[in-house]
Write a structure and sequence with these properties.
Blueprint: E1 15-31, E2 35-49, H1 59-67, H2 77-87, E3 93-106, E4 113-126, E5 130-143, H3 145-150, E6 157-168, H4 174-183, E7 187-188, H5 195-207, H6 212-224, E8 229-238, E9 247-254
Helix pairs in contact: 1-2
Amino acid sequence: MIDIQNQIDDRNIDIDKVGIKDIRYPITVRDKEIKTQQTVAMINMYVNLPKNYKGTHMSRLIEILNEHDRSISIQNFSDILLTMKKRLNAESAHIEISFPYFVMKSSPVTHSQGLMDYQITFKGSLNKGKDLVVMINVPITTLCPCSKEISRFGAHNQRGEIRLQVRFKKFIWIEDLIKLAEECASCDVYSVLKREDEKFVTERAYENPKFVEDIVRDVAERLEKDPNITWFAVESENFESIHNHNAYAYIERRKE
C-alpha cells in the first residue's frame, strides 16, 4: 500500500514535535510502600520530523506503549524514548505521562486512614542527551503570618498547592518528594479527619504561619542541600480565603 507519510514534502520546514496527545492509558508505577500501584495516565508522545518527510507514523507510538506491558517507571523511561527514536527514525523523542498517585495517609491524632491523591508528571526527552523531570502537585494548608499578627483573635487560612519539579542523578521516590513539600507547609491536608484531628490541624497551622514566600524558600533550602538534586523549580500558590485573587511565589535553581 502507498505510504503517504514517507512521501517527500517540498516546503523545506522541520517540525520540532509531532505525535499523539491525551492518550488515556492504564499504567503500573513503583510504590515505596506496596511495591507497585495501578493508575490511569494521560500520555503525550512526540518525535521530531525532518523537513523532507510529509508525516510520521503515529500508530507506532501506541504500539510502543503496548509493548511495555503497562509498566511505566523512572527506570524504563530512557528505553521507551530510545525505542521511539529508532522505530520512527527520529533524532529526538519526547514523552509526558501525567497520572493521579495515591498514598494511604493516617490522620495526626486518631490515625484514621484515607487515600490522598497527588497529581504526578514524568516528562522526558532524548536528543543528543537524555533529560527527565519529575513533577508533583501537593495540596497544603497555609495560615497568613500577617493576619495572625494584626488580629485580636484568629487568622485567615486557606488551602494551597506546592508544585515541585526536579532533575536528579539517581532514582528518587515520589513519596519522599511529597513528604518534603508537606513538611514545608503550615500543615498537611488529609482525606479523613475526626474532631480531635481537626483541632490538631487547626492549631498546628496557627502555630506555623507561612507566606507563599516562606514555603518556596523552605523547599528550596532543603533541595539545595540534597546532593541527588541537580535542578529544581518550586511554586507555591494559595487559593485565598479572604481575597479575590491567589497569592503566588516561584523559585528555580540549577545546581553546579
